[in-house]
Amino acid sequence: MAAPRLRTGERPTICHDVVIVGAGFGGMYMLHRLRGLGLTARVFEQGSGVGGTWYWNRYPGARCDVESMQYSYSFSDELQQQWDWSERYAPQSEILAYANHVADRFDLRRDIQFDTRVDSAVFDEAARRWTVTTSDGASATAQFIVLATGCLSNAKMPEIDGLGDFKGQIHHTGHWPHREVDFSGLRVGVIGTGSSAIQSIPIIAEQARRLTVFQRTANFSVPARNAKLTEDERQWFRDNYPEIRRKAREEMRNGIFTEPPEKGAFDDSDGARRQNYEARWSRGGLTFMSAYNNLALDKAANDTAADFIRGKIADIVRDPDVAKRLQPDSHPVGSKRICVDTDYYATFNRDNVELVDLRDTPIARITADGIRAGDIDYPLDAIVFATGFDAMTGSVAKIEIRGREGRTLNGKWAEGPRTYLGLMSEGFPNLFLITGPGSPSVLSNMIVSIEQHVEWIADCLAHMRDEGLDCIEASRQSEDDWVAHVNEVAYGTLYPQANSWYMGANVPGKPRVFMPYIGGVGVYRQICNDVAAKGYQGFVMSAAPRSNPIAVHSA
Ligand code: FAD
Ligand code: NAP
């Protein structure tokens, strides 16, 4: 049963130790860990259920691109031994069922208030507490806030003239209806060719009478090779989980267990390199980018992988002009999130599918009857916006957050997000971010990164309680140093060469800053552990004059 709602005018609940915003995988695990410490926590979630990403993104074909046996919590061995993933890449419905199972199994719902958006969070310097106000008009106070608001949770509709004029159905992949959307017999337009589009296009094409894909930037995609998992495959993971999880956390840059690349692309002959790419293409999945250790660093090395994929596109797509347009030529492979597909390129061989290259004919406007690109009208019954998210900072920015001296986080981040370790931002004491900008976050298997952040925050709060401390804040210097380091590492790679959402480039007016930390989850974890071991170096911790240490409220 979900937590009771506070009604307008009702006396606010003032006695939470922690308010958590968001009930995706981050918020759910945070709640579980805080309970383990004996702290009181309340989660506010604007959706009507748990699961975050997997609650909202119900578009056809939605599934994970990190293998299910790895895209899952590791904190409970019973859970990982008992849960049966059905496919190599679980579909959205199964991941959502898993999230619900976790909520039930750990009895999380009694502290989660659904259908409630956090609108503002204001720090009271004298009381050293946060007050949050919520969309139901209520307010609550807490000593700490954890923003588990998600990096890809703020679906972005593009600003295109005439959006309101369209008479047919409009859907955004990131905000999909909770009923089945049937495109049978319809003329459908999909705008975008990112991961969401690339997953949904082959399925929509099978249903729709006609599908028109509006592509602004061609993207690299590798085959998923999705398949049912056999019991033997599941058992192999279960038997080896301790080592698989350890390696994913400590040794892999992206938190995905695989054989790490030991050589660069030019350490192999042309033939051997091609064989390596072929083997990875046949195996399928994101680990294609682990073929060599310099693909993200050296443009010439990267070109060998990019050329290989372009060659595959030319092999698959029968119309050479369409194949050419589908071949990415504007960014290094991997500098935008590489996509993982089932029959994406082959879909363009279907008679009912058309590709519109917006580089030749940009969208002029949406009309009552469809989309006008250049001076051509494409009549449509439905438009799917697979146009992505205001990523990493978008959901945080929607909350009015006021820290010391009334300063707003949006004001502070006007030129781009600034954090220490992606965990805290100076001037905003006792406010933690999960997978925030400046942490590996979206460049990783995100459950690995979520677990690491949650556990670090929980350990930090336990330390503060043990020491009788009630306030923690990133120091200005440590934050400046970290931001400089994040930039330095990013600009040593090819990533900033792409107009990606990692750079904020997909949102007009958003500052161009490379937001995630590219140093790898293993290196990053070690840095965070060292910081903690050195007494939370770079953070300023204090006790109130009349001490108000945490855990005064029993759970
Ligand atoms: P979310 O799951 O985004 O949850 C955040 C929650 O916070 C949301 O439910 C939101 O409603 C709520 N919220 C936000 N603001 C407020 C507010 N002001 N008040 C109340 N509630 C609020 N990552 C991988 O590692 N592997 C994958 O295969 C993968 N596939 C993905 C597929 C899709 C379609 C998308 C969009 C993302 C994918 N990701 C993947 C990234 C995915 O977002 C993370 O893996 C993970 O689910 C994030 O969990 P989270 O709890 O941090 O955030
Ligand atoms: P995305 O990668 O940002 O892709 C959005 C697409 O829409 C891009 O092709 C973009 O073109 C296009 N677009 C945006 N505005 C447009 C406009 N005004 N006109 C024309 N085209 C426009 O978003 P996403 O596909 O939703 O994926 C976001 C992230 O979520 C992924 O990178 C991944 O991390 C995660 N995800 C994962 C999976 C998975 O496989 N498990 C599935 C979905 C999402 P430009 O490139 O030119 O900007």
Automatic annotation (TrEMBL):
Needed cofactors: FAD
This entry's Gene Ontology molecular function terms read: flavin adenine dinucleotide binding; N,N-dimethylaniline monooxygenase activity; NADP binding
Q: Has keyword Transcription?
A: no
Q: Which InterPro entries match?
A: FAD-binding_Monooxygenases, FAD/NAD-bd_sf, Flavin_mOase-like
Pfam families according to UniProt: FMO-like
Give the family from UniProt: Belongs to the FAD-binding monooxygenase family.
Q: Which named protein is this?
A: NAD(P)/FAD-dependent oxidoreductase
Query: What lineage does UniProt assign to this protein's organism?
Result: Bacteria, Pseudomonadati, Pseudomonadota, Alphaproteobacteria, Hyphomicrobiales
